[in-house]
Amino acid sequence: MNKKVFLQGFRDGIPIGLGYFAVSFSLGIVARKAGLTPIQGFIASFFNLASAGEYALFTSIQALASFLEIAIVTLVVNARYLLMSCALAQRFDSKTPFVHRFFIGFGITDELFGITIARPGFVNPLYTYGAFCVAIPLWCIGTSLGIIAGTFLHTRIVSALSVALYGMFLAIIVPPAKKNRVILLSVLVAFALSFASSIIPLVKNLSGGTRTIILTVIISSVVAILKPIQEENEE
Question: Are 35 and 7 contacting, i.e. CB atoms less than 8 angstroms apart?
Fold first, then answer.
């Protein structure tokens, strides 16, 4: 059973990993402009599994920012993952060891969070580990190869590949939205408010990560109050 769950996660992580490869490849070109080597890019990607976070990291390095400035910028941009980790923490069996909670919290990303939280019942760490095993290496390798290829490949060509990642993310949220009107409404409201926050004065000046955190807290809180999920006893 454990092997089967792990392989399910590995299978579901393949399309995510391919999307990550394309995105991180383009980020590798940015990293090269910042003066990073392929090995440095690989390490940076491993410890910062986020496109916006890495872009902020590489551009900050290129701008010769201090270590403190880089740390603050990446923390703010990646702060939304704190919310995702807290949400997943509520889905673990109470007997799940802390070590599993720690490593899943470390490696969680938007898409990996999506496929993990969508599974019924308690979160099985082996499923998420299976997805990690294919998605994270492809993310890191993509960054390294992007640094190598940055000398001859046009940036626009690589950036076009990132469209696949957004299509994959839609594939994660559309099926549950079709089955549940509350989820559908929440998704539509999130789209509308996300667009509005990018053009509203003052709010649009906030970083993308900060806007995501604010919208996530507001929308999830309202939905939780108006349409709470009925708890079921799980063996």
Answer: no
Query: How many CB atoms within 10 Å of residue 228?
Result: 8
Amino acid at 214: I
Express each pLDDT in 26-46 by its tens digit: 888 888 888 999 999 999 999
Torsion of CA 96, 98, 100, 101, to 10 degrees: 100
Interatomic CA distance for residues 28 and 85, integer angstroms: 27
Determine contact, residues 56/69, Cβ cutoff 8 Å.
no
Cα 227 to Cα 229: distance, rounded to the nearest angstrom: 7
Query: Would you say residue 104 has pLDDT above 50?
Result: yes
Amino acid letter, 213: I
- Collapsing DSSP to helix, strand or coil, 50 comes out as coil
Banded model confidence at residue 232, pLDDT cuts 50, 70, 90: very low
By CB neighbour count within 10 A (0-12 exposed, 13-18 middle, 19+ buried), where does 35 fall? exposed
Whole-model pTM? 0.72
Helix axis angle for 80-89 and 98-107, nearest 10°, is 150
